[in-house]
Structure formats: structure tokens, C-alpha cells
Amino acid sequence: MRNRLIAAARRSMLQRGELYRRLDVAKAALRPAALVDRGKYRIGEKVDDAAHAVQQQFRDNRLPIAIAAAAGLAWMLREPIREHAPRLVKKIQDLATDVADHFRSADEPADENDIENVEEDDEAVR
């Protein structure tokens, strides 16, 4: 009878210890810092999953997404484009005209006066 009581007391102490351990685990899990950490982890997992899905969609559909992004960017910048485009076009046209004039003057034959000056310089060198 005595041995049974001792064994029952041991079992009771072991169960009590187990319950206290579980209670400590539950307390630790319900602390605000632990709840915040668990929330951060779950949100981080969801963000990672979403980022992976977006990357996969971009890999699968590069051209349509790039076109849509360019169109969206142009739409967002439509007011500055309307304001600055005429001046930019004018500058580009002026630059193109200057380049064309530069090459056009290089292609034209030299004046007769320039040829005579070169011949005089040649004679002076001799």
C-alpha cells in the first residue's frame, strides 16, 4: 500500500511538472513580444511568397509587363512631358541641323582662293 502511494505521488509530481512546463510554454507564446515576433514571421512569409509569385510572373511575361510599366510611367509623367517636349524637340532639331551643316560643308569643293593659298605656302617651303 505504501509503495502505491509513493508511485502515485511520483506520477502526480511528474504530471504537475509537465503541466507547469506547458503553462510556461503557453505564457511565453502569449507574451506581446512573442506575438509580435510570430506576426512578423507570418507577414514575412506572406511577403516572400508574394514576391516569388511576382518574380515568376515577370519571368513568364516580360514584354507585356515592361510595356505596361513604360505606359504607366509615361502616363505619370504626362504633364512634365507636355511641358518640356517642345523645347527638347527643338534642341534635337537644332543639333541635327548643325551636324548636317558640318558634314555638308566638308563635302563641298574647296574655294579657288583656298587652293591658291596652299600653292603659295608650298612654294615658300621650298
Task: Tell me what the structure shows.
With 126 residues, the chain is an all-alpha fold. It is built from five helices and no strands. The longest helix is centred in the last third of the chain and has 30 residues. It is rod-shaped and about 125 Å long. The mean pLDDT is 86.
Defining traits:
126 residues; mainly alpha; 93% helix; rod-shaped
Biggest sheet features: none
Helix content: over 70%
Distance between the amino and carboxyl termini: 140 Å
Order of helices and strands: HHHHH
Instruction: Classify the secondary structure makeup into a structural class.
Output: mainly alpha
Shape: rod-shaped
Mean pLDDT reading: 86
Q: Roughly how many Å is the radius of gyration?
A: 43 Å
Strand content: under 5%
Number of strands: 0
Number of helices: 5
Poorly predicted parts: none
Summarize it:
The protein has 126 residues and is an all-alpha fold. It is 93% helix and 0% strand. The mean pLDDT is 86.
Write the layout of secondary structure elements.
Blueprint lengths: L1 H29 L1 H29 L1 H15 L1 H30 L4 H14 L1
